[in-house]
Amino acid sequence: RLLRDYVRNGGALLMFGGYYSFQGINGGARYHRTPVEDVLPVSCLSVDDRVEVPEGFAPVVTGTESHPILKGLGTDWPVLLGYNEVTVKDGAEVLATVSTEYGSQPLLVTGTYGKGRTVAWTSDVGPHWLPSSFIAWPGYKTLFEQMLAWATAKA
């Protein structure tokens, strides 16, 4: 509840994917139906939401480069190896999805809650779902810095 109130009053929340994010492995993260989920621009599933893609998928940038998070990143991002499945809430902005082979599910989503801003990145921030090619990509550092900068700017 403290996080929800913090964001409502102008704070920021960024949630990144992984084994214990969103609903996570065997549903063990348990963010579904919590005050944290209230704040997110996405809704969590009620079950294990991990989608493993060992062959990799290419992220699809759906937002415009004019969005501060996407500035200078282009549309050709390295492959990812998995993500947490979520659904987008009304009013949220989807900036990137997983590939069409996986139903164009949300990968990078922004939103607001009260006076605050929220970001959901449904893949990992390092290995397991981020292969070394993604971490070595010059846009890796920029992407996460720009997510943080956007979220912490005043809504």
Spatial gap, N to C terminus: 20 Å
β-sheet strand percentage:
25-35%
Low-pLDDT sequence parts = none
The CATH architecture can be named as 3-Layer(aba) Sandwich
Radius of gyration: 14 Å
Structural class: alpha+beta
**In which range does the helix fraction lie?**
10-25%
Count of individual helical segments: 4
Secondary-structure element pattern, one letter each: HEHEEEEEEEEHH
Q: What's the pLDDT, averaged over the residues?
A: 96
Which strand order does the major sheet show? 1-9-8-7-4
CATH top-level class: Alpha Beta
The H-level CATH homologous superfamily, spelled out, is: Class I glutamine amidotransferase (GATase) domain
Please give the largest β-sheet.
Answer: 5 strands, mixed
CATH topology: Rossmann fold
DSSP E strands, number: 9
Whole-number count of domains = 1
Note the overall shape: globular
Structure summarized in a few sentences:
The chain has 155 residues and is α+β, with helices and mostly antiparallel strands.
Structure notes:
The chain has 155 residues and is an alpha+beta fold. It has a single domain, classed as Rossmann fold, CATH 3.40.50. It is 20% helix and 29% strand. The protein contains four helices and nine strands. It has helices at 2-8, 35-39, 132-136, 139-152; strands at residues 12-16, 42-44, 50-57, 60-61, 80-84, 86-88, 93-97, 106-113, 116-121. The protein has a five-stranded mixed β-sheet, sandwiched between helices. The protein has a two-stranded antiparallel sheet with strand order 2-6. The chain has a two-stranded antiparallel ribbon with strand order 3-5. It is globular.
